[in-house]
């Protein structure tokens, strides 16, 4: 009688794992009675059951990642109890890939809204509508810093962080480099740029070369001033410190992704009397730049630099669109917080992305 | 014996680097050049054996995964900058990397830096910590509005946001300085203990 009750309450359900690329089945099972040992068995159409995995009383699900899409599988949970061996009714399932991840619908909507806003404001800017951008002190000082270095007869030093070209901060740094290089070319000044990645060196050489061409001074462009030091974080910092002490640059730009070497670089730059402008989105390094540099671009300011410096309608439109994106999140936070205070978590749930 | 030599070399190089605190000098230059040279060589070999060979060399030339011809060709295009006349070709793989990176990270950053942060900020205003968190995030966001003039109410919010940022930077500064001092203590422990055996 007890065995019959155990069999009837022993159940297994099998379903194609949702929102995946296929090749996976999720099994859920329940066994309300204690058992000595348990196993999950699997068979394909027309074949014998084979043992897949052992289960313990605390297991309630198992994901089988060894299935083929389009093949029908039968699963069974088999338990050994003190009364004997009992098996559940087999459950069948066919695995298949899904084209759309339903758990990421919110992300799709957010991407579409933000990109839509950006495209809308780019269109407006291209149509001739003047877009305002607030003053960013650190960027106002770029020309002043290059000019000061020129007056002192010293080179300008630019460090684009220690990460590779696939880091967005490095890309933002290279964008600012173009403006700095153009100004340096106009003032007939030289740029020194040690890099810690070979690809950054390549990209920087191209950028500076173009800037010197734009300024009409390709003759004074020296590709050897943009050189690779080492990939090693502190080896790079030691090398940069040495260059600062020997070349005594009049202006130092620290624009990119920095880690523990940030204070070492900024402190040495300060000691040689250079005007320093830093920009990074690394929250842990910003305090050091704020302390040791004359101007610091904080997070988003660093990414806005390109639009600010170029005043290009396309980039200004993009910046305006991003501001509206921020406003959207601001509104969501305010409404979500008020609702959460009264016990409703609907906004928080909507923002959940798997 | 070898360990003793290693300790003496490490101690000498540590003192060479410390000498920078006085001023730039030949000892620092020696340690700096040694460090830069050794690390550049190390990373070149590391990249060859741990990146290029396992991810491209073996799969492409031994296991014949032909899809890897694409990065192989992009890599060759990059090397063409060694030949000035056709060096312009190297811009193509660079453009590919920069463009692909920007697109790839759009979704990742939007999720981690926007959606997740917004979710984490939506908290019931039932205690002082939550209130400070929400006010800090909202005013901080105002500081990062670029297309609006920071005047009147927006200006006040942005100024409060800036104050929150500075307080956060100050706390982070203190925390990290303490961590750096522990590194310095570790170095002194090495000099006085392992090297001079005074501890």
Written description of the protein model:
The complex is a heterodimer of chains A (354) and B (199). In chain A, the strands form three sheets. Chain A has a six-stranded parallel β-sheet with strand order 11-10-9-12-13-14, with helices on both faces. In chain A, strands 3, 4, 6, 7 and 8 form a five-stranded antiparallel β-sheet that branches. In chain A, strands 1-2-5 form a three-stranded antiparallel β-sheet. Chain A folds into three domains: 2-94, Immunoglobulins (Immunoglobulin-like, Sandwich), CATH 2.60.40; 102-128 and 314-350, no CATH class; 137-310, 3-Layer(aba) Sandwich (Rossmann fold). Chain A is an alpha/beta fold. Chain A has helices at residues 2-9, 105-126, 137-152, 168-186, 198-214, 233-247, 262-271, 286-292, 300-310, 313-341, 346-350, and strands at residues 11-16, 25-30, 37-44, 50-55, 61-64, 72-81, 84-87, 91-94, 156-161, 191-195, 226-228, 251-257, 275-280, 295-298. The mean pLDDT of chain A is 91. In chain A, α4 (168-186) runs parallel beside α5 (198-214), α4 runs parallel beside α9 and α6 runs parallel beside α7. The relative contact order of chain A is 0.11. The longest helix of chain A has 29 residues, at 313-341. Chain B is mostly helical and 199 residues long. Among the domains of chain B are: 1-64, no CATH class; 125-199. In chain B, 78% of the residues lie in helices and 0% in strands. Chain B is built from six helices and no strands. Chain B has helices at residues 2-18, 26-61, 69-79, 91-121, 128-143, 152-195. In chain B, α1 (2-18) packs across α2 and α5 (128-143) packs across α6 (152-195). Chain B is flat. The two termini of chain B are 21 Å apart. The model of chain B has no long low-confidence stretch (mean pLDDT 93). Classes of the chains: A alpha/beta (354), B mainly alpha (199).
């Amino acid at each position: 009688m007890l065995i019959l009750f155990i069999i009837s309450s022993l159940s297994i359900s099998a379903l194609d794992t949702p929102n995946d690329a296929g090749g996976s089945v999720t099994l859920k099972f329940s066994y309300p009675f204690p058992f000595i040992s348990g196993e999950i068995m699997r068979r394909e159409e027309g074949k014998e059951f084979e043992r897949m995995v052992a289960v313990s009383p605390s297991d309630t699900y198992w994901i089988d990642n060894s299935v083929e899409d389009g093949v029908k599988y039968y699963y069974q949970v088999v338990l050994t109890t003190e009364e004997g061996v009992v098996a559940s009714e087999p459950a069948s399932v066919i695995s298949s890939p899904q084209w759309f991840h339903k758990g990421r619908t919110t992300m799709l909507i957010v991407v579409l809204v933000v990109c839509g806003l950006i495209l809308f404001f780019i269109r407006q800017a291209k149509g001739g509508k003047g877009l305002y951008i607030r003053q960013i002190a650190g960027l106002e000082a770029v020309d002043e810093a290059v000019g000061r270095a020129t007056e002192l007869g010293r080179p300008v030093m630019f460090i684009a962080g220690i990460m590779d070209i696939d880091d967005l901060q490095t890309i933002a740094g290279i964008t600012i480099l173009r403006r700095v290089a153009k100004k340096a070319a106009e003032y007939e000044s030289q740029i020194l740029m040690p890099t810690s990645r070979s690809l950054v060196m390549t990209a920087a050489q191209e950028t500076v070369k173009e800037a010197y061409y734009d300024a009409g001074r390709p003759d004074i462009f020296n590709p050897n001033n943009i050189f690779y030091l080492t990939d090693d974080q502190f080896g790079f910092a030691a090398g940069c410190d040495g260059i600062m002490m020997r070349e005594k640059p009049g202006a130092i730009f620290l624009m990119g992704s920095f880690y523990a070497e940030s204070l070492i670089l900024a402190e040495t730059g300060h000691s040689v009397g250079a005007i320093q402008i830093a920009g990074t989105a690394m929250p842990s390094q910003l305090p050091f730049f704020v302390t040791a540099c004359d101007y610091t671009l904080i997070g988003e300011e660093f990414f806005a630099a390109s639009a600010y410096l170029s005043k290009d309608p396309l980039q200004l439109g993009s910046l305006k669109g991003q501001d509206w994106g921020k406003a959207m999140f601001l509104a969501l936070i305010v409404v979500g917080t008020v609702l959460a205070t009264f016990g409703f978590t609907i906004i928080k749930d909507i923002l959940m992305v798997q | 014996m070898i360990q003793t030599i290693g300790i003496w070399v490490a101690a000498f190089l540590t003192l060479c680097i410390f000498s920078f605190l006085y001023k730039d000098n030949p000892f620092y230059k020696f340690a700096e050049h040694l460090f830069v040279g050794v690390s550049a060589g190390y990373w070149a070999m590391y990249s060859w054996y741990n990146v290029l060979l396992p991810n491209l060399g073996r799969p492409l030339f031994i296991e014949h995964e032909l899809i890897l011809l694409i990065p192989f060709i992009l890599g060759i295009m990059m090397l063409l900058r060694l030949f000035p006349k056709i060096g312009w070709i190297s811009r193509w793989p660079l453009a590919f990397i920069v463009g692909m990176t920007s697109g790839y990270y759009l979704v990742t950053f939007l999720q981690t830096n926007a959606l997740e942060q917004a979710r984490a900020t939506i908290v019931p205003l039932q205690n002082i910590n939550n209130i400070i968190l929400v006010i800090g995030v909202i005013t901080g966001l105002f500081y990062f509005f670029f297309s609006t003039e920071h005047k009147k109410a927006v200006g006040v919010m942005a100024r409060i946001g800036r104050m929150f940022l500075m307080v956060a930077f100050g706390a982070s500064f203190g925390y990290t300085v303490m961590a750096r001092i522990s590194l310095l203590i570790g170095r002194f422990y090495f000099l006085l203990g392992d090297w001079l055996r005074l501890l």
